[in-house]
Amino acid sequence: MRNSMEEGDTERGTGLPGYNDVNDPFKLRDALMTDEQMAAIKANSRRKRIPLGKSPRAALHAHKLRGFYRQQNEKIERWLKPVHEHVQDARDEQGSDALQYRIAVGASLIANILLAVIQLYAAIGAGSLSLFATAADAVCDPLSNLTLLLCHRAVNRVDPRKYPSGKARIETAGNITFGFVMACISVILITVSSIQLLQNEGRNELKPLKLTPIIVVGVAFLTKFSLFIYCFALRNKYSQVRILWLDHRNDMLINGFGLTTAILGSRIAWWIDPAGAIAISILIAGIWIRTCYSEFQLLIGQSADTAFLQHVTYISMTHSPLITQLDTVRAWHSGPRLIVEVDVVVDKVRTVEETHDVAEDLQRKLESLPDVERCYVHVDYETSHAPEHFWKKEL
C-alpha cells in the first residue's frame, strides 16, 4: 500500500493520469481548473464590465482570480506527483545544470579578477572616491567567489562521522562571512569620503576625469550585465549562484551610479564625487546587511514556507492507511535545506513491526524530497497528550 501512489503513476505520459480513490483519496483532481474555465472567468468579467464602462476593477478582480486558480492547479499537480518523480526531476535538473553551474562560478571568478585589477588601476589613476568605491566592491568580488568555491568543496568533503547533520550550513556561514566583510569595507569608504568632504569644504576645484576610467567602468558594467543574465536562470537552484546573481545586480547599480557621480564631480561640483562614494558605500552596506539577515534566518532555523508544509502534510496523510491522523508537522531551515518533523497517529492495536515499517517508509520518502536534509517521524496512538517537546527557556 505504501507505493500505491507511485504504482498508480507509472503510466504517466504528458500530464497527470486518471486518479482514483486509492491514489487520490481527497479527489483533488476534480478541483483542477481547465483552460476553458480560465477563459470563462475572463469572458464573464468582460461582460460584467460592459455596462460600467472601462473600469479596471473587474479586470483586476478577474486577473487575481485566474492567478489564484493557476496557483491552485500547480499545488494540486505538485501534491499528486509521486515523490520518486520529484526526486528524478531534481536529479535531472541538477545533472543538466551542473555544467552551467561551473560556468557561472568559473566565469564570475575570472571576470571578477580581471575587473578588480583594471578598476583599481582606473580608480588610482583618476583619484575619484566614487571610482574607488566601485573598485573596492570589485576587489572584494574575487574574495566572494573564492569563499563560495571553498564552501562548496567543504560541503562535499565533510566527514559524516564528525558532522552527521547540517553540513549544508557551511554555505550559509560562508555567505554571512562575505556579507560582513563587504559591510565593513563600506564603512571604511564612508569614513574616508566624509573626511575628504570636511577637509575640502569651501573649495571649488574641479579635477578633470580622463576617458580611460570611463571606458573601464563601462566595460565592467557590460560584463556584469552579461553575467547577471546568465546567472538569472540558476539563481533558485544553487544558493551560491544566487549570491553571485545578487552580486552582479548590485555591481551594475554601483558601477552605473559611481561612473555618473565621478563624471558630475569632475564637471559640475567637486563634492558630488565623495558624496557619491558615501551613497554607494551605504547602498553596498545596506544590501549586504539585508543579505546577512536573510542568511541568519536560515542558519537559526526559520520555518519552511506554507507550500512546503502543505506538501509534507499531504504526503504524510496519504502515505499509508495505517496512519489515522497527523498530530504535528514541522519543517525548518538548516542552512539552505530543511529539517522535517512529523508526528503520526496509528491504532494502538498495531504491532511494533507494523508501526515501525510505516514510520521508516515515511521517513525515507520525505528525506528523498530535494529540499530535505533530515526527517524525523514519531509514532503515537492518540493526540490528547501534552507536547513531547517543551520550550526550554532556561538552561
From TrEMBL:
Topology versus the membrane: Multi-pass membrane protein
Pfam families in the cross-refs: Cation_efflux, ZT_dimer
Region: Disordered, residue numbers: 1-22
GO CC terms in record: membrane
Domain Cation efflux protein cytoplasmic intervals: 319-380
Protein localization: Membrane
NCBIfam families cross-referenced by the UniProt entry: CDF
Gene Ontology MF terms in the entry: monoatomic cation transmembrane transporter activity
Protein's recorded name: Cation diffusion facilitator 1
Sorted UniProt keywords: Membrane, Transmembrane, Transmembrane helix, Transport
Ranges for domain Cation efflux protein transmembrane: 107-300
GO biological process, one term: intracellular monoatomic cation homeostasis
Residue stretches spanning the membrane: 101-124, 172-199, 211-232, 276-293
Superkingdom of the organism of origin: Eukaryota
